[in-house]
Amino acid sequence: MWFGEILAKGLMVAMQRLFELSREEIFDLGKLFDIIGGSLVNLLLPLLMILTTLFIAALIGAAGVGGISFSAEAAMPKLSKMNPLSGLKRMFGMQSWVELLKSILKVLLVSGVAFYLIEASQKDLFQLSLDVYPQNIFHALDILLNFVLLISCSLLVVVAIDIPFQIWQHAEQLKMTKQEVKDEYKDTEGKPEVKGRIRMLQREAAQRRMMAALPQADVIITNPEHFSVALRYKQNTDKAPVVIAKGVDHMALKIREIAREYDIAIVPAPPLARALYHTTELEQQIPDGLFVAVAQVLAFVFQLKQYRRKGGQRPKLNEESMPIPPDMRY
């Protein structure tokens, strides 16, 4: 072990200088402190190398488990940590018993490995008394560092079991109970009355957008009293007629009032109006099953405009001839 050799040389130089102290140096505190300081400097480099290696190993281990994180909040003093009742709860809680069991297993494992190493290294340990200086120091530090290395490797077994267990335990602690899920849902979604208010505001906003788009309609198909559906069909932009507004009762009346303001044709066709209202959402094209019926209405509107400009025979719309599929009759 090259660490052992470096540390042994530093220790040998420091001890040799300390054993060579003269009487004058021992009683002169200034010189004595200088000599002790110089001896410590000789040990500083090997110790610094060992500590740096341990620091890097700790960083690698932390990064491998889940990343390196630093929080200044954890270092802040908290009076709650000084509460003796909280301390007693932690001492006798399930987590404390689990940690105690893990600590006992670690001690047993490390003690067993250490006992085995001592038994296996008896010859080397007896050989130390026969070695001459400084070989005995090198040999002793090699044995010591081998012990540390092998015991550290034995702890990898503990780490391989403990880390997955801690990850699983942390995941279990993050899971919420049914009551916590309900509380979180209330916090994120709000109380029922608040959600009702939000839905009402959303409906009002949608109605305002719908009324703003109503002047683009080509025809209003009515029930005639309870349903009103506004259709837009622009040959250059729409592949099929699109529902841009619809409503029942009061909203249906409002749609008809705006249609009269903008001179939009209002065509009574109860079966078609109900079918469009129930099968088509806003800004959606009409279903294929209603193409023919809507085409008849649009043709009627075109003929009605021609009649108003040129006169002649007033066109008529035969509601009974409109083909409405059975599954679209409401």
TrEMBL record:
GO cellular component, one term: plasma membrane
InterPro entries assigned: FlhB, T3SS_substrate_exporter, T3SS_substrate_exporter_C
Keywords: Bacterial flagellum biogenesis, Bacterial flagellum protein export, Cell membrane, Cell projection, Cilium, Flagellum, Membrane, Protein transport, Transmembrane, Transmembrane helix, Transport
Main location: membrane
Functional summary from the UniProt entry: Required for formation of the rod structure in the basal body of the flagellar apparatus. Together with FliI and FliH, may constitute the export apparatus of flagellin.
Its membrane topology: Multi-pass membrane protein
A biological process from GO: protein secretion
Protein's recorded name: Flagellar biosynthetic protein FlhB
Listed transmembrane segments: 43-76, 97-118, 138-161
Family: Belongs to the type III secretion exporter family.
Matching Pfam families: Bac_export_2 (PF01312)
Source organism of this protein record: Vibrio cholerae
Source organism, top-level taxon: Bacteria
Subcellular location: Cell membrane
